[in-house]
Specification:
Blueprint (H helix, E strand, L loop, with lengths): L6 H22 L18 H12 L5 H18 L3 H17 L2 H25 L4 H84 L5 H34 L16 H10 L3 E7 L7 H21 L3 E8 L5 E9 L14 H12 L3 E10 L7 E12 L2 H10 L4
Parallel strand pairs: 1-2
Antiparallel strand pairs: 2-3, 3-5, 4-5
Length: 418
């Protein structure tokens, strides 16, 4: 019941009552013409067609087809016994409402039917009055009554549909912008998590393993303990320095004066020897082999290769047997660089193993993908050192990093450090 008595229905009903009252005034004032055969048509008979067309006004929004039906019946009855000016005028609103609020197929039919009726009405007027000059007059009058409200409704409907389409398009653009914002935020969070993990995990892993060794070995002399503690201190200081650099970079945009910059440390694959030396200090016997001529690489490729070597050595420190091999091969024609890190896995599962969440492998794979490279990591069977009679399980990390357009685009995703 409430659906039928919302604000629009009440307004239409009020308009119908006002229109009906105005129509009664016109009928009472004699604004009608009786046909030649029926000059004595009683005035009260003209009220019936007026009631029908006014009832159509009350239903113009809720039932536009019913509105049109009531209007057609009302105006036909009025033409037989009248016609009256009031009923014809209200019938134009019935046509307008049916075209504007009715189904789309009705709109197309209304345009064609009213145009045909206007021409037919003009022809009938010309034949009945035996004067073809009335053909033009009849067409114009019928066009004003029939086609004008229909074409007006068609124009308004097109504007309304266009407004709805523009509103939907604006809402869609807003949703897409929100999705882009979420994607950018998630991408930045992923990049920050990857950078923090790669910068800190290496230092903390070395600290954890060396401190565990000192605590578990009671036979170490003072010199050995001091050497381990120096290494622990060096890893702590370097980790804090890299963390401080990362924090300064994050604060650079909003927390510094205009023009003031933070100079980030550039990580280069050519500095892999430094990573190897740090791993050796942490107790891993690392062999480094460089093939080809080292050359300047794009910043994103340099950073990706450096971090892959760093994370691989961290995993070798945490899960290996104390040895690893790092191979860096530069392509002959400058097409890219290949990074290969292998290490045997410790046979003592509980010895040096530290808990991990698998973020390192995810980060390495993401770095290789961002520069358009290929990455693979997994176990393999390697020969043990010594007489070569036994084999052991090992872990291999291999990344092919190309030098091309993709690596330049990825520099934006790696941030200022690259």
């Amino acid at each position: 019941m409430g659906r039928w008595w919302d604000g629009g229905m009440r307004r239409d009903l009020a308009v119908a009552v006002v229109v009906f009252a105005g129509g009664l005034v016109l009928v009472a004032a004699g604004a009608f013409v009786g046909w030649g055969g029926k000059p004595g048509t009683p005035t009260w008979a003209l009220v019936g067609p007026l009631v029908l067309v006014c009832a159509g006004v009350a239903l113009r929004r809720r039932a536009p087809l019913v509105c049109l039906g009531l209007g057609v019946v009302g105006v036909c009855a009025d033409l037989l016994i009248g016609p009256t000016l009031a009923t014809v005028l209200v019938f134009t609103d019935n046509l307008y409402a049916a075209t504007l609020y009715g189904p789309r197929w009705l709109t197309k039919w209304m345009v064609g039917i009213t145009c045909v009726l206007a021409v037919v009405a003009g022809a009938i007027a010309g034949v009945m009055l035996s004067d073809w000059r009335w053909l033009a007059v009849g067409v114009v009058q019928a066009g004003l009554v029939l086609t004008t409200p229909v074409f007006t409704a068609v124009i308004l409907r097109q504007h309304r549909d266009q407004a709805v389409a523009e509103r939907a398009r604006a809402e869609q653009m807003a949703r897409l912008a929100e999705l882009d914002r979420h994607a950018a935020v998630n991408g930045e969070r992923t990049r920050m998590a990857r950078e923090l993990h790669d910068m800190i995990a290496n230092h903390f892993s070395a600290i954890a393993i060396q401190s565990t060794a000192v605590l578990s070995r009671r036979d170490l002399d003072r010199q050995a303990v001091l050497k381990v503690m120096e290494t622990i201190r060096e890893n702590s200081v370097q980790g804090m320095a890299e963390m401080r650099s990362m924090i300064e970079l994050l604060r650079q945009e909003g927390g510094r004066a205009p023009g003031e910059q933070v100079e980030a440390t550039k990580r280069r694959l050519a500095d892999a020897a430094h990573l190897v030396e740090r791993a050796r200090q942490a107790g891993v016997d690392v062999r480094l082999r460089v093939a080809g001529t080292a050359r300047e690489l794009p910043a994103s490729v340099d950073l990706a290769g450096y971090r892959i070597v760093q994370e691989s050595l961290t995993n070798a420190l945490k899960y290996g047997d104390g040895s690893a091999t790092v191979a860096i091969e530069y392509a002959a024609h400058g097409d890219g660089v290949t990074v290969l890190v292998e290490n045997p896995v410790a046979r003592d599962e509980g010895g040096r193993r530290l808990p991990g969440a698998g973020a390192g492998l995810i980060g390495m794979r993401e770095r290789a993908a961002l520069v358009g490279g290929e990455f693979e990591a997994g176990p393999y069977t390697c020969e043990g050192r010594g007489d070569g009679e036994w084999t052991a399980k090992g872990w291999r990390v291999r990344a092919e990093l190309p030098v091309g357009a993709g690596s330049g685009r990825a520099a934006l995703l790696f941030g200022a450090e690259g």
